[in-house]
Predict the structure.
Amino acid sequence: MTDAGNRPVASSVFVDERTDGPGAIRLSENDPAAPFYRVLMKLRAPVAMRDMMLAPVRACYRGEGLTVDPAELPPGAAQLYPQVSVSTRAVPSNAGPIRCECFAPPGEGPRPMMLYLHGGGFVVGRSEDTAFVTSRIAAENNVVVLSVNYRWAPEWPFPAGLDDCMAVLRWMREAGGEIGGDPSRILVGGDSAGGNLAAALPIRAREERISILAAALLCPVTDFHFEKFPSFERLAPTGAVIDAPFMAFARAAYLTTQQQWPHPWASPARGDLKGYPPTLLISGGADPLVDENRAFAENLTAAGVKVDHLIADAMPHGFYFFPGLLKESDAAFTAIGTFLAESLRRL
């Protein structure tokens, strides 16, 4: 299952802007039910129930229609970390160019590189959303962070997004010097759905003998059988940040068959974890995924992997996103700094 849907394309469109994936809804005039669909189109738009759910999710996630006084928000990444330069890289792949944002601290290279993957339930999100996280990691740890805008489900289901991440990882190993990075010191990181992709990368990269130094995973999804965990059953029905209906929708958008749920590239907690890199897990005590994260840490430990697991008491999914609001957020970044320093010293 390698690079599915990544047939070579002659296009300058960034992959995360492509909507022509195998999961896109297509209605044909040659369909025997075409007269039914034509009437349906006059009664509702979009026609597909899935697209009805996707449109508001994506619009609301972007805050469309909201008027916000900037004075009411925490300062942005550019204001907090003006010393971190931000540039855009178009990383080539068989599916087209992959838009990546490079967050580089001041100073001379080569420096360690982190491949970072944003969250958004596999169906939404972009590197700009996590600019505070990536800027802070770059500034506090002298690491070049490359944040990837991978393809979304359901238009591009599993493993298209992971294919994009893998293409960027290969590029970092081969051409990371172009961004001041050291290809021999590659880290991976990500949050939520991006944490899932980051957690799967070491398993997939092992097949290509690409070495990953360490993994920093923030509230990741590591096992798509999430209903079996007590914290999910207890907290997901009324979760404020993520909840049971959204998680079921995200899973169905990303994984098109139940047979894919246990695949190690989808549920890394169920894969062969021997030789997995040292891992930092950051979880919220009020996150429905906290018990799943605990189980992943236990599986890693059983496989002989060094694991640090910070659980922030009473904190929800994604509690680390905004500066200056929660002391637990600062504790999470302190843990990241300590973990990365230890990982780099082991070289």
The longest strand covers residues 181-191. The mean pLDDT is 94. Residues 34-73 form one domain.
